[in-house]
Structure formats: C-alpha cells, structure tokens
What we know:
The chain is an alpha+beta fold. The protein has 3 domains: about 5-135, Beta-Lactamase; about 140-215 and about 340-375, Winged helix-like DNA-binding domain superfamily/Winged helix DNA-binding domain (Arc Repressor Mutant, subunit A), CATH 1.10.10; about 220-335, Winged helix-like DNA-binding domain superfamily/Winged helix DNA-binding domain (Arc Repressor Mutant, subunit A). It has 14 helices and 13 strands. It has helices at about 30-40, 90-110, 115-135, 140-150, 150-160, 170-180, 185-195, 225-235, 240-255, 260-270, 275-280, 300-310, 345-355, 360-375; strands spanning about 5-10, 15-20, 50-55, 60-65, 75-80, 165, 200, 210-215, 215-225, 285-290, 315-320, 325-330, 335-340. It has a 5-stranded antiparallel β-sheet, sandwiched between helices. The protein has a 3-stranded antiparallel β-sheet with strand order 6-8-7. It has a 3-stranded antiparallel β-sheet with strand order 10-12-11, sandwiched between helices. It is flat, with a radius of gyration of 24 Å. It starts with a strand and ends with a helix.
Amino acid sequence: xxxxxxxxxxxxxxxxxxxxxxxxxxxxxxxxxxxxxxxxxxxxxxxxxxxxxxxxxxxxxxxxxxxxxxxxxxxxxxxxxxxxxxxxxxxxxxxxxxxxxxxxxxxxxxxxxxxxxxxxxxxxxxxxxxxxxxxxxxxxxxxxxxxxxxxxxxxxxxxxxxxxxxxxxxxxxxxxxxxxxxxxxxxxxxxxxxxxxxxxxxxxxxxxxxxxxxxxxxxxxxxxxxxxxxxxxxxxxxxxxxxxxxxxxxxxxxxxxxxxxxxxxxxxxxxxxxxxxxxxxxxxxxxxxxxxxxxxxxxxxxxxxxxxxxxxxxxxxxxxxxxxxxxxxxxxxxxxxxxxxxxxxxxxxxxxxxxxxxxxxxxxxxxxxxxxxxx
Length: 375
C-alpha cells in the first residue's frame, strides 16, 4: 500500500520546499528530498520520472518532475513501500494522476483567493487516489491484460517475446535500448504477464539466467453485448427501448474497425476499477438512470461523472422512453481476448535453423506450447 504523496517545489530564494503532503503527517527529511531532486536534475534537469530508493525513510519514491525550466518546477512524489514498484499501477494511471495534481496546482497559482478551497480539493483527490492505487493491486485477468496493453514497456516485452524466447537480462536490455529508459526491476514489469499466464519463466540446463517463454497472446477490442442483444430481441426492458438499442448497436458496429488509438482508450477505461465495476454491472442488464446501484460512500455526482465518461467513449448509451425514463445500456463491451500463438511454432523452427536459439530452448518452448494447446 502506498504511504501517500509529498509535493515539493523548487524556488530560487528558498530552494526545495514541501508544498503539500497527504496524509498531513507524512514527512520526508531534507536529505531525502535532495536525493530525489538530484536524481531528476542529473543531466539537463528536464521533465520526467525517476524511481528512488530511500533507506532512511524505508520507502521507494516514484517521482515526477516538471523540469527546472518549467513555469512551476514541481516534484510529485508518490511514497511507496520499500520494494514496491510503480509498474504495478501502470504508466498511464500514474500519468493521469500527475496531470490532475498539476492542474490543481496551476489553479492555486492563478487564483490565490481560492487556494484554501483548492487545497481541500487536492487532499480529497489524493485520498481517493490512494484508494484507487490500492485497488489496482487486485485487478481481474482482463484488467491485467489491459494494463499490459497500456504500458509502453509491456508492449515492448510482448513484441520481443513474439519473436523468440529470451533471457531476463537480455529482455531488460532490449527494453532499455528501445525506450531509452532504465528498468530497475524487471520482475515488476513481468508481473502482469505471469499472473495472466502469458509467459512462463524457467531455467534451461546449462544457462546462468532464467529464460522467458511466450505461451499465449492477446488482443483488445469492442464487441456487442450478447446478453443485452438477446434480451432486446425479446423486447426487454421495453419494446421501445429494445428497438432503439438494437438500432444503436447495429449502427455502431457497422462502421467499427479496431485501431491502436481506440484500443488504448478502451484498455485505459477498463483498468479503472470504478469504470470496470459499472461495465460489469451493465453487462447483465439495463438500468433506469435513477436506479443504478451505488458503491458504499459513492455520491450521485461521482456516479454521474463515471457514466458521462463512459458515454463519451461510446461504451454506454442513454436512451429515453416515452415516459421520459432514461435507461443506461451497455453499447459496446470491451474484450481482452487471449489466443494460442500458433505463429510461434514456425518462428521457433526458423530461429533454431538460423542458430539464434539453442536446441534445448527450442524443445522446451515447444513442450510448453503443447501443454498450453492441450489445456
């Protein structure tokens, strides 16, 4: 569980100062703050992310810095347990969090009279964010696949293993070279691959490092909601709503073609636990807008915000009947579909013939694929 957030700012007259922390009793001493700051400014001092291990504070810190040349040189420090890695939350989620915090900070700098109210809003946002991050440690299989899809590092891993088996250190080198980023802990990046059964790690006799084998592949796309379509054909929830719903579904999928931009968008959507809960709920049936079940502590405004986002992304459709009752229908479901990587069999044969992998590695990979196929 993350400890919290500490937001610091660099100023010419005071140097590095703590601008805000949550929880309020969360502290970091000056030496540790400067260690994080120096990790950022080594080089050009440009905007970017670093992961710093603080022995004294017994914490790992995932830190984003806006850069020395920015109008507001700010560090957003997510304080983690020692040994935790931000990779478990996904790059996209952390970027969205940083962007939202910076949005609040800019509001504070442009409207000083509202600073007190904005700080209250930031603290509430950080409180909810910590709850979200805790939930992200317990994702479903399709959410973990979406997490892989959203991560540039993870997509690079998948592309590399689609070619041939690799040593862990070999794979780490490929990621660092292609993305020009240091990968301090390859195990955390591999975690969603292991938990979803996409890859197998195993020792091959005579080798000094673990080899990674791809056992399954996947893709993400939208699909009609089979249960709701069948219900609509039986005029549920009402003949009028059913007819309008079938027309909307037909029109959407007549023009729908999966593409990377849309796939990334829907993958990010189902990674969010609240969005995912609503999608799972609406897979089963349609609901009148005023009768949608709420989670404990969830406000009407929060539900409305989630639904608005899902509507904008063409995942749900709001349809009004002749009594002015608004029904919420799942227009498109999001599927993370795994499939057997048959293409690997020919690639393994070719890589072996070209001398790029050892015979023992090729045999082990084929054995793993055979077991996967039988399952």
